[in-house]
Design goal:
Helix content is 41%, strand content 14%. It has 30 helices and 22 strands. The N and C termini lie far apart (67 Å).
Length: 736
C-alpha cells in the first residue's frame, strides 16, 4: 500500500523542469483523456487554457473517483517513465468544480501562476514561511483547506490535508481541533497531531477517509434501505426527466461518494456514468437496455445462437448466449464472490512474498463447450491441472530444446512446443495457476505442488498433468479484480507482474476495509412498458423480489431453459425502469410486475425552468412556468394527469424563436396524438392564436346512395380546425 509515494517523489522531480513548458503539461493531461481546459478572456469568451501550475496539475489528475484517479496516475507514470503505482490510498480527491488554484485569465493580475510555481519550489526546498503562505492565500480560488491539500500532494510525509474528513476524524477520534490562521499555526497543529498519533501523515489521511462512527454507519445503512429499493420504476408523462434521472440514481447507488461531491455537476455525472457503463468486459457497474415490441426473453436472459459450420460438422450446432440481465447478474454475483474470498484470507502474502510469486494463466478445456466440462471437473476432483497438446507423446525428462525437437519432428503445430514447455519446464512447484472461464472471468486458483506427469491411461482426453493444491474452486470472479488486462485465449502463459493487483493477494487489513465494501450494480431499463414484460422476464419475475434474492432467507433458484444451469439474482443488483404514462401504444403493466417494483412518479418540475431557461423562466416577456402550468391544468381536465407534458420541452431556450421551434417540432405533434387530430380540443388548450376554424369551402361527397343522406348532410356541416401561422402565435394569451 501507499505505492503512490514513490511515484509522487519521481513526479515532483519531473515537474521542476516544466515551469517554462506549461503547455506541455496541459497536453499531457489531455493525452490522459482528462477534459475541461477552457480559460476565459475577455469575460464571457472561451479560450484554450495555455498556462498551469503544478498544484492544479495534481487537481486535474485527482478530480474523478478513486479508480479513475488511479488509472490517471498509472498512465501518467507510463508516459513519464515513473514507477507505476498500485494504489492511491490516502490521496484526497480534488473538487471537480474547483480544480484551478488561480482565477480566469480576465481576472488574473498577470503573476498568479508564477507565484504558484515559486511556492512549489519553496515546498520542494523546504523554505516556506508565513509570508509566502499568506501570499498564496491572497490568490483568488485558493483557500486554506485547498492549500493544505496542495502541500500534501507535494510532500505527504511532512504536510497533512486538514479537509473535512480529516477534521471530523481528528476531532471525534482524538479530540484535536484543526482550525489554524497562518502557516505557523498550521505547523503547530501538525506538531500536535504528530505528538498524539504515531502514524505517518499519509496513513492518517487514509484513516480520516475511512473513519465513520458506528452510529453513523448504522444510520447510513438504514437510510440507504429507505432511499432506494432494489426494483424501481420511474413513471410520468413525457418530458419529465425520467431517463435523465436514471443517470443520477445509478451513480448514487454505485458511487455514492462521487455523487455526493458532484450531484450539481451534470457533466461530471454524465462522464462518470459513461465510465461505469459495462461494455464488452466486466469493468463497470451499470448496464443499459431499452424494451420494445421485439425484445424477448432470449435478448434479456439467455438464448441459443447458431455457430458457423465447420467442415467436419455433420449437423448444425448452437451455443447459449447470455442476455443483458444474465450478464449483469453474473458480474454482480462474481463481485460478491470476491468479497467472500478476500474475507476468508485465502491469500496471506506479505508484500515481499507477493513480489516473489509467479502466476500463470491456464485453460482447462474450452469453457464454452459442454464436452470440455469433464476436463475441468476431473482436474478439480483429482487435484490436478492438465493440458492437451501432443497427447500421444510422453515428455517426461525432456528439456526445453528436446521438447522443441520432438514437436518439430512429429510435425505438430508450432504453439504445442511452447505450451508443453510452459506446462512442463517453465511452471515450477510453488507457482500459482489461474484457471480461466472465458477471457473476463476465472473459476479457480491453484498452487503447483508436483512435477510433470504423463498418464497414458487418462480418463479424459488430456494426458499431461501436474499435481496442485486448490486455493479456491468453482467460484467465478472477474479478471479485472486481480489483473489489469483481460486474459487472452492462449492456453497457457505467464502473467505479467506489472498488471497483477497486489491488493487481491497481499494481507493488509486496512486495504481490505477499502476494497471489500459492498459493490452495487444497476440495470437501467428504458421504456419498460413497451415490451411484453411477462414474456421477457419469464420465470425470473419471482427471483427479482427482495426476499427471493441470493443470500436472503427465502432465496430462490431456477434452472435456465437453454443452459440448464442454476440461476439466482444477486442482492447487490438494482433494477431501475422508466415508463411513459402517455404512451397509449402499450398495455398497462400486469399486477405481478407492479407488486415487485416500487413506483416513483416524475411530475413536471417548474423550478428547473426558472433555473435553466430565460431570466428566471421568463423569455422575452413570456413566463414559461405559467405557460406550462396552464397548459397542464387544461390537459388534465380534457384528458388526465398522465397526459401532461414535462419541463424538458422548455429547458435551455434562449429566445422566442427557439420556443416556437419547440412548439412546432415537439409539442404540437404530441398534442395532435393526444387528441387524435381533434384540433378543436387543442384550441381549448392553446387558444385562438394557435388554432382557428377553417373557412367552409364548397365540399361535396361522392355519389353513394346507400349511405344515410341525413348523416352525410350533418358531416358537411362539421367544423374543421387548423393550426395558425407561427406569426400569429401569442404565448402570453395562453395563460393571461
Amino acid at each position: 500500500m501507499f505505492t503512490w509515494l514513490k511515484t509522487h517523489q519521481q513526479l515532483i522531480e519531473k515537474l521542476k523542469s516544466y515551469q517554462n513548458r506549461q503547455k506541455e503539461l496541459i497536453t499531457i493531461l489531455k493525452d490522459l483523456g482528462i477534459t475541461n481546459f477552457q480559460d476565459e478572456y475577455p469575460k464571457g469568451t472561451k479560450i484554450d487554457l495555455e498556462e498551469i501550475d503544478p498544484f492544479s496539475f495534481f487537481c486535474y489528475l485527482y478530480k474523478h473517483g478513486e479508480s479513475k484517479n488511479l488509472e490517471n496516475l498509472k498512465n501518467l507514470a507510463r508516459h513519464l517513465s515513473l514507477e507505476i503505482p498500485n494504489d492511491i490510498k490516502g490521496l484526497p480527491n480534488a473538487n471537480a468544480q474547483k480544480v484551478w488554484l488561480f482565477p480566469y485569465k480576465y481576472l488574473r493580475q498577470g503573476n498568479e501562476i508564477t507565484r504558484l510555481w515559486i511556492f512549489f519550489n519553496l515546498i520542494v526546498t523546504n523554505q516556506i514561511n508565513n509570508d509566502s503562505f499568506a501570499d498564496i492565500l491572497r490568490i483568488k480560488n485558493v483557500g486554506k483547506i485547498k492549500l493544505t491539500e496542495a502541500l500534501f500532494y507535494i510532500n505527504p510525509e511532512k504536510y497533512l490535508p486538514l479537509n473535512e474528513p480529516l477534521k471530523k476524524y481528528l476531532k471525534e477520534a482524538f479530540g484535536i481541533e484543526t482550525e489554524f490562521t497562518d502557516f505557523k499555526s498550521y505547523l503547530l497543529k501538525l506538531e500536535e497531531i504528530r505528538n498524539r498519533i504515531s502514524d505517518p501523515f499519509y496513513k492518517i489521511s487514509l484513516d480520516g477517509y475511512l473513519f465513520k462512527p458506528e452510529i453513523e454507519k448504522m444510520e447510513s445503512k438504514n437510510q440507504k434501505s429507505r432511499i432506494q429499493s432494489l426494483n424501481t420504476i420511474l413513471f410520468g408523462p413525457p418530458g419529465t426527466g425520467k431517463t435523465h434521472s436514471t443517470i443520477e440514481k445509478a451513480i448514487e447507488i454505485v458511487d455514492p461518494e462521487f455523487f455526493k461531491e458532484n450531484k450539481e455537476d451534470r457533466k461530471s455525472l454524465k462522464r462518470r456514468f459513461n465510465e461505469l457503463l459495462i461494455k464488452d468486459d466486466t469493468k463497470g457497474q451499470i448496464m443499459f437496455c431499452t424494451f420494445h415490441q421485439s425484445f424477448s426473453y432470449e435478448d434479456f436472459v439467455e438464448g441459443i445462437k447458431p455457430l458457423e459450420p465447420r467442415e467436419e460438422d455433420t449437423f448444425l450446432k448452437y451455443k447459449v448466449e447470455d442476455g443483458v440481465f444474465k450478464k449483469i447478474c453474473r458480474i454482480a454475483e462474481s463481485q460478491t464472490n470476491v468479497k467472500n474470498i478476500t474475507s476468508k484470507n485465502l491469500f496471506n502474502f506479505t508484500k515481499e512474498q507477493f513480489k516473489q510469486t509467479i502466476f500463470y494463466k491456464l485453460s482447462l478445456g474450452d469453457s464454452t463447450k459442454e464436452e470440455d466440462q469433464e476436463i475441468y471437473e476431473y482436474c478439480i476432483s483429482n487435484n490436478m491441472i492438465a493440458i492437451g497438446f501432443a497427447g500421444q507423446i510422453d515428455f517426461s525428462g525432456k528439456s526445453e530444446s528436446e521438447v522443441n525437437n520432438i514437436i518439430e519432428e512429429e510435425k505438430i503445430e508450432t504453439f504445442a512446443a511452447k505450451a508443453i514447455n510452459y506446462f512442463k519446464n517453465y511452471l515450477k512447484i510453488g507457482n500459482y495457476v489461474i484457471i480461466s472461464n472465458g477471457n473476463s472471468f476465472i473459476r479457480a486458483i491453484a498452487k503447483v505442488t508436483g512435477d510433470y506427469e504423463y498418464h497414458s491411461d487418462s480418463e479424459i482426453k488430456y494426458k499431461h498433468f501436474r499435481k496442485v493444491e486448490w486455493i479456491f474452486k468453482d467460484v467465478e470472479i472477474p479478471v479485472s479484480e486481480f489483473y489489469e488486462k483481460n486474459l487472452s485465449q492462449q492456453t497457457i502463459y505467464k502473467l505479467k507482474s506489472d498488471f497483477i493487483k497486489p491488493e487481491f493477494f497481499v494481507k493488509d487489513d486496512t486495504l481490505h476495509v477499502v476494497e471489500n465494501g459492498e459493490k452495487n450494480y444497476v440495470l437501467l431499463i428504458d421504456e419498460i412498458n413497451r415490451g411484453n414484460v411477462s414474456a421477457i422476464f419469464g420465470e425470473l419475475i419471482t427471483l427479482i423480489e427482495d426476499s427471493k434474492r441470493a443470500g436472503k432467507d427465502e432465496e430462490l433458484e431456477v434452472i435456465l431453459p437453454y443452459s440448464k444451469k442454476p440461476f439466482k439474482v444477486p442482492e447487490n443488483l438494482f433494477i431501475i425502469g422508466t415508463m411513459n404514462t402517455a404512451d397509449r401504444s402499450v398495455e398497462a403493466l400486469d399486477t405481478a410486475l407492479r407488486r415487485r417494483f416500487t413506483f416513483e412518479e416524475m411530475s413536471p418540475d417548474y423550478s428547473i425552468i426558472e433555473k435553466l431557461s430565460g431570466e428566471n423562466g421568463v423569455l422575452e416577456g413570456v413566463n414559461l412556468v405559467k405557460l406550462l402550468d396552464t397548459v397542464n391544468s387544461r390537459l388534465e381536465i380534457l384528458l388526465d394527469k398522465d397526459h401532461k407534458i414535462g419541463h424538458s420541452y422548455f429547458l435551455g431556450l434562449k429566445n422566442l424563436l427557439e420556443l416556437k421551434n419547440a412548439f412546432r417540432n415537439k409539442i404540437l405533434p404530441l398534442f395532435e396524438e393526444y387528441f387524435f387530430g381533434d384540433f378543436g380540443k387543442l384550441g381549448l388548450v392553446l387558444g385562438s392564436s394557435f388554432v382557428q376554424k377553417k373557412n367552409k369551402e364548397t365540399v361535396s361527397f361522392a355519389k353513394f346512395e346507400d349511405y344515410d343522406p341525413y348523416l352525410s348532410q350533418d358531416l358537411l356541416q362539421k367544423d374543421v380546425f387548423t393550426i395558425t401561422d407561427e406569426i400569429n402565435w401569442d404565448f402570453k394569451s395562453i395563460y393571461e
